[in-house]
Design goal:
178 residues; alpha/beta; five-stranded parallel beta sheet; two-stranded antiparallel sheet; disordered N terminus; Rhodanese-like_dom_sf; PQQ-dependent catabolism-associated CXXCW motif protein; PQQ_CXXCW; Rhodanese-like_dom
């Protein structure tokens, strides 16, 4: 039974080893084994993330990067937007999970958090990306440093959610409205 639950992503992820939390942000090699912990955050399994989602007890933020269409493509070049499938109701704050982010990206991140989670920094907010993706770890760490006190990290991400046969929906990156 435990093996079946592990295959469905209902238990804690299978770790490639004991990865220590870095002192700061992960700055490269973002698709690599992640630590079991994030100081100041609650780390959840798929079953725990599903319960939070069903009970609407947290605002879900996907931080998967997005590559926008280059502005200087030669005429006639075909560009296909990547399709992103998210946990339903999530907000996709693209590109905020890098170790170093510009002031513009930090502003986008802060505005997205405030617009979707409200002014209450104690409201539960959950960050995810993909399994073994440091982007969500970095974003959750940054939210903690910005004073959010109920940060949740779901390290199995959208692919862990999908492995558990839970619903996904296509998303576009969040756009700040003026």
């Amino acid at each position: 039974m435990l093996v079946a639950a592990g295959l469905l992503g209902l238990t804690q992820p299978m770790w490639a080893g004991d990865i220590a939390e870095p002192g700061g942000y992960r700055m490269d090699d973002y698709r690599a084994p992640v630590p079991r912990t994030l100081q100041g955050a609650r780390v959840v399994t798929t079953a725990e993330a599903e319960a939070l989602w069903r009970e609407k007890k947290a605002v879900f933020f996907d931080v998967m990067p997005n590559t926008p269409k280059p502005t200087n493509l030669p005429a006639g070049t075909i560009w296909r937007e990547a399709t992103r499938k998210d946990i339903p109701g999530s907000i996709w704050l693209a590109n905020v999970g890098y170790g170093a982010i510009s002031e513009e990206t930090a502003s986008y991140f802060r505005q997205g958090l405030a617009a979707e989670a409200g002014a209450d920094n104690s409201r539960a907010i959950l960050f995810y990306c993909m399994t073994n993706c440091w982007m969500s770890w970095n974003a959750a760490k940054r939210a903690i440093e910005w004073g959010y006190s109920s940060v949740i990290w779901y390290p199995l991400g959208a692919d862990g959610w999908e492995r558990a046969n839970l619903p996904l929906e296509e998303k576009k990156p969040y756009v700040i409205s003026n």
